[in-house]
Amino acid sequence: MKYKFSLDRAHATTRVDVPDEVAGRIRKSYYHSGLSIGKLSELYGYGTSVIERILGMR
Predict the structure, then answer these.
(1) Digit-coded pLDDT (tens) for 28-57
(2) Distance CA 23, CA 52 (A)
(3) Which range of residues forms the domain containing residue 38?
(4) CB of 33 within 8 A of CB of 25?
(5) Within 13 Å of residue 32, how many CA atoms lie on the same side as its CB?
(6) Residue 58 — pLDDT band, cuts 50, 70, 90?
(7) Which of 1, 40, 52, 57 is the most exposed place for a label (fewest CB within 10 A)?
(8) Residue 2 pLDDT > 70, yes or no?
(9) pTM of the model
(10) Whole-angstrom distance, CA of residue 39 vs CA of residue 15
C-alpha cells in the first residue's frame, strides 16, 4: 500500500493542468475540425499524452 500511495502522489505532482477554456477549444478542434492529435499538440503547446487525456483517450 505504501508503494501505491507514493505512485499516486508522484503522478499528481507531474500532471499538467489545462484550463477548462483551453480544454474546450481542444475538444472542439478535434471533433469539429478533424485536427489530428499531433497537430493539436503543435497548436496548443501540450504533449500528445495531455491532448489524449483531455479527449478521454487515457
Answers:
(1) 999 999 999 999 999 999 999 999 999 998
(2) 11
(3) 18-58
(4) no
(5) 6
(6) confident
(7) 1
(8) no
(9) 0.73
(10) 21
